[in-house]
Amino acid sequence: MIAPAIAPQGRRWGTINLGGALLTALTLICACVWFFPIYWALVTSFRTDDESIKSFSLLPEHPTLDSYLYIIAHSKLPIFYLNSTIVSLAVTAITLVMSICAAYAISQLEFPGRRLLWWTILASFMIPVPALIVNHFIIIASVNLINTYAGIVLPLLIAPVTVIVYKQFFDSLPREFREAAVMDGANEFQLLFRVFLPMNWGITAALGIITFIGAWNNFLWPFLAAQDETMMTVTVGIRAVQDTFGVAYARLLAGAVLAGLPVSLAYLLFQRRVTQALTLSAGIKG
Amino acid sequence: MLKNSATERLAAVALVAPFVIIYCWMFVYPTVRMAQLSLTDAPLIGAGHWTGLDNYRRLFSDKVFWTAVWNTSYFVLLTVVPGTAAALGIALMVSRLSGWLQSLILTMFFLPYVLPVTVVYLIWQWLGNVQFGVLQFIVVPFVGHPVNMWRTIPWFMPWVALITIWWTNGFSILLFLAGLRNIPSEIYEAAVLDGATRRQIFTRVTWPLIWPVTVLCLTIQLILQLKIFDQVYLFALGGRTAATMVLVQYIYEQAFQRNAGGYAATIAVALFVIVVGFSVLQYQVLRMRGAR
Amino acid sequence: MTEEAAKNGVERAPHVELRRVTKRYGVVAAINDLDLAVEKGSFTALLGPSGCGKSTLLRMIAGLERITAGQCFINGVDVTEMPPAKRRIAMVFQSYALYPHMTVKQNIAFSLSVAGAPRKTQDERALEVARVLQLEPYLDRRPAELSGGQRQRVAIGRALVRQPEAFLFDEPLSNLDAKLRVQMRLELARLHAALGVTMIYVTHDQTEAMTLADKIVVLDRGRVAQVGSPLELYRQPANKFVAGFIGSPSMNFISVSLATVEGNTATVKLPGGGTAQVGVGSAPAGAAERIDLGVRPEHLLLVDANDASAAQSGRISIVEHLGNVTLLYVDTAAGQMIVEAPGSTPVKSGDVVGLRLNESNVRLFGADGATL
Prior knowledge:
heterotrimer; B: mainly alpha; 13 helices; C: alpha+beta; Rossmann fold; 2 domains; six-stranded mixed sheet; 20 strands
C-alpha cells in the first residue's frame, strides 16, 4: 500500500470518504484526458478514410480493418518492421553481452587502466550523443557502412548505463560466492556465466527490454544512416509513409499504430521490468 | 586472493575488449574528432584546412546560432519546470491509489513514453490537423478560427513543448513515485496527529522530503531537453524551419544540408559546453537551495 | 619436524603446516611469525576472540589470502604460491555461500561440472555425498527452501564431493540458533569420526572448540597463545589469556603480591589479608612484579564468612540457578568473584560468605601473563 501523499481527511458521507472519492474521480478524468490522443489514434485507425474526416464519434461507426490491411499490403511497412527487428535485436544482444563482460571485468578483476576506464564511462554522461552525429556519419561513411545494418547498429551500441548497472550489481554480490566458486575450480568465464549472471536474471531482462525499446524508437541516427527506403527502420519509415498517404488519415494512423505496437506490447507485458530498468538507470544519473 | 595475475589480466582484457573497442570507436574518438573538426573548415566528408578559432569567431556573430540558442532555451523553459510539476502532480494522484486501478491509471499516463517519436508526431499531427483535428474544437472557441499549429509561429513551440511533456513525462512520474514511496507512512500519521492540514502536510512534509528527487528530475529533464531535435524537426517539416530551429537541428542542417562539417562540429562543441555548464550550474543552485 | 610436532610426540610429518607465517596489511601485522602444524586426520580448532587472526590464518591455508612472509605446506608440498583451486582443499564458509539459483544437486556437483566431468559421474558422486549427509530427499530443492541445518549439510556436501586433502571450516555454526548449534556439533563430530579427514575449524566459541577438537590452537592478536588438547588447555593453561578464555564461567583473577618463594612453592599475600600457598614452575622476576592469582569458579568452596581458612569473604550480589550448579557472584575485597557451587546450595542474594581456595588448583600468572 503506497503511503498517501495527501492524507485522506475528507468529510465522511455514510462510509464513503467524499474527498477521497472526488480525488480518485479527478485522477481518473485526468488519466482519460492524458490517454485520449492514443485512444483517438486507435479509433481513427479503425475507421474508413471517409468516416475519419466526417465523424467525431467516440467509437468508430463502422469499424474496419481496411486501413491496416491496405498499409501492410501497399507500403513498405513490412520491410521497415524487418529492419527494425533486426536492428533492435542486434543492438540489444550485442550491447548486453559487451556490457556484461566489461562490467564483470571492471568489478571483479585487476587490470591496467581499470580505474581510467571506469571514470571515462562515468564521465560520458556529460557528452550529448546527438552532438556526435556528424562524426558518426563521417566514421560510418569512411568504412562504407552507410545504408547497411552494421552501419545503423554501431553507433547505437553506446550504453554506459548498462555497464554501470551491471557493475554495481556484480559489486553487490557477497565476496564468498566468488571465493567458493574459485575454490571449486571455476575460471572467470564460468564464474561470470554460471554463478554471477544467473543470480539475477531480472536485471538482464529489464535492461534487455529497455535497450530494445530504445533501439526501436531511435530516430535521428537511423534517419541519417539509411539512405533509401529499403533500409529504413519503422520509426524512420513511418514518416516516409506519410508522404505517400498524405490525406488518407485512417491509413496513416493505422501505420502509426502498427509502428508503436511492438514497443507498447513490450511495455504492457513486461511493465515491472521496464519500471525496474528505468528506476535503475535513474539511480545512476543521480 | 591468490591468483595468477597473468591469466587474470588476459581474461580481463578479453572481457573488456569488445566494449572498449566500440566505446573508443563510437564515442571517445568522435568526441575528440568533434573538437578537432571544429577548428577546421572541412566539409562533411573529406579533409579541410586548419582555421583555428575562425569558426568560433563566426559562431559568436552568427544570428542563426543565437536564434537556435534562444529557441532551445525557450523550449527548455516551456518543458522542464512545467513538466516536472505535472509529473509531481500526477505522481501524487497515482500514489494514492493501489491495486489494479493504480496499474491501469499508471499505464495510461506512462504509455506515451515507450512510443517512438514519429508515432507521437503522427498522433498529434492528426489531433491538431487544421481541417479535421479534434483539437480545433478547443481552439476555435478561443481564437475564432482553426489554427495550423505547426505553421503559426507563436503556437509552434508551446505546442511542441506540450507534446514533449506528454511524451516524456512517464519517466519523471516513475521517479516521483519511487521517491514518494520512500517516505514512511508514519511521518504522515504523525503530521495528521499534530493537526496539519492537507496543504501543510504537502508543503512541510512531502515537498521537503522529495526535494532530492525533484532536483534529480529537473536535472535529467534539463539535459534531455537541451538536446532536443526529433520532434521539432518533424513538426517543422515543410514549413519555415529557420524561425524555430534548435541547436541540434542547426548542427544537422549545417552538416548535412550545407555540407559544412567543420562549422557543424563547432556548434556541437558549443552545445556540449552549454549542456555541461547548465547542468553543473543548475545542480549547484538547487543543491544550495536544498541545504537551506 | 617443527617444535609443535615434537611437543605432541607425533612421528610423521604434519599434514598442513604453516612456517613462520606473517600477514601484513600495510604496516599492520595481523599475523606475526606464526608456526602451525596440523596432523593428518585430526580435528584442529583455531580458537580466539574476534580480530585475533584465526579467519585470516584459515584463508591463508585456503589460498584466499596472500601470505606476506613465510610458507605454507600441504602434504609436504610448498603451496605458498599455489592458487586455491589447486591446493585440493575445500572450505565451508560462514554463510555457506550456496548458489541460490542452483538445486542442491547442482550445488554439490558444481566443482565437478566446472571441471568438465561427464554428467553421469556428476550425478553418481552427488548422490553418494547426499546419502552420507542424508540429503537425498532434498536434491531437487533450492537453498532458499532448506533449513539452516540442511543448508550447512549442503555446504559440507559441496566440499565433500571434491575429496579434498583437508576441510576448512570458517565459523560454520555461528548463523544457527542455540539448539541447532548443539545438534550440528554432534553431526560434525560424527562426520569426522566416520570420514577421518583432516579438519581445520575456526571458531570464537570455546565450547565448540572444546567439544569438537582433538587439538586447539588458541590465538591472541596474531600469535599462538597455546596449542594443546582441550583438557591440557583447561588444566594447564600456559598464560593468563588462555586461562581466561577457556572455561565457562571464566577463571577468577585476583591481584596478589609475592611474599616468599621456597623451591616450588610460593606464598602470596591476598587482598584483605590472608595468604595462600601455590605451586610454581618458575620463579617470578622480583617482588615488585605484578602477579595475578587465578582460580576457577568450581575450585572455590563456600565456607562461613568468619572461617579462618577463607581466602576471601564478601556479600553475594547475584545468584544464578542453573539446576545442576548454582553460580554465585560474590563481591570481595579482590573484586567480584564467581563461584560454582552444587545446585542444592541454600544461599540467597545478600548473604555474606567466605571463599576457600582449593590450593592445588590455583595458578599464578606473572606480569607478562605467563604461568609461573
